[in-house]
Amino acid sequence: MNSNTELAPAVRSILEAARDRSGGDGVVDVDARSLPDALAAAEADGRVPVIAEVKPTSPTAAGTRADDPVELARAMVAGGAAAISVLTEPTHFDGSPAALTRVREAVDVPVLRKDFVLEEDGMDVVDADLLLLIARFVDDLDGLVAAARDRGFQPLVEVHDRAELERAIDAGAEIVGVNNRDLARLEVDLETFESVAPEVPDDVTLIAESGISSPADARRMRAAGADALLVGSAIMDHGAGDSDVTENTRRLARAESTETEQI
Ligand SMILES: O=P(O)(O)OC[C@@H](O)[C@@H](O)c1c[nH]c2ccccc12
């Protein structure tokens, strides 16, 4: 593990909690729904491929949304989401593996497990189509990418700078997410994606993560080379408990359509 001394306190405490959580019993064996196919289907349909995130709260959220995760996920798919991400981290995001299982049963798009998986046995907690691995938090990235694939997961390797990207590519990552949120200060800067994206090989599926809040942001990330956008806060709209998740998703999924008012 890389040094955590410069991480935000909330992130340090998330990692401590992750280390304390137990892994699963046995080894999962997943028959994954293809993310590249789901992204291509959205493109063919004229939608910006959006991975919409069921995130009840977060250390940076304005509040908590306690809505049923299944209802949220269905609303996101109705708004044109190409895939769904579900936070399963319990202590700082109010997520749960059970919520992911219910969501995956209820929708037919690929579902990403969003958590802080630090070791191999942390993968065996729940089935999902994609599994997040955060380059910064794991030493043996090669081993974890291989272990995820052995279980049938499509690993999504998250990076924040070019050095981490190099590690991801060396580890054989085929799906890479560039997180615009700096885990040291928890601040978002969309330039992060713009600076890393040019270094990403063409055959890698590239996802822009975090801080995308408007159709203009969506177009900006697409112009910089994003194959898909991972969006939580702007869709969950934590500060406004009754915000329309379908409509919030649709605004972003339609960001490139000519009939949409260009905001
Ligand atoms: O809510 P946002 O800014 O749209 O971000 C979504 C997603 O990128 C973010 O939740 C995230 C990115 N990487 C993570 C790792 C763990 C937990 C959460 C995340």
UniProtKB/TrEMBL annotation:
For the region Disordered, give the residue spans.
241-263
What catalytic activity does the UniProt entry give for this protein?
A: 1-(2-carboxyphenylamino)-1-deoxy-D-ribulose 5-phosphate + H(+) = (1S,2R)-1-C-(indol-3-yl)glycerol 3-phosphate + CO2 + H2O
Identify its protein family. Belongs to the TrpC family.
In its UniProt entry, the species of origin is given as Natrinema saccharevitans
CDD domains per the UniProt record, alphabetical? IGPS
Query: What's the encoding gene here?
Result: trpC
Report the NCBIfam families cross-referenced here.
Answer: Indglycph_syn_Halo_TrpC (NF041303)
Tell me where on the tree of life, at the top rank, the source sits.
Answer: Archaea
Against Gene3D superfamilies, the record matches this protein to:
Aldolase class I (3.20.20.70)
Organism phylogeny: Archaea, Methanobacteriati, Methanobacteriota, Stenosarchaea group, Halobacteria
Q: Which InterPro entries match?
A: Aldolase_TIM, Indglycph_syn_Halo_TrpC, Indole-3-glycerol_P_synth, Indole-3-glycerol_P_synth_dom, Indole-3-GlycerolPSynthase_CS, RibuloseP-bd_barrel
Q: What is this protein called?
A: Indole-3-glycerol phosphate synthase
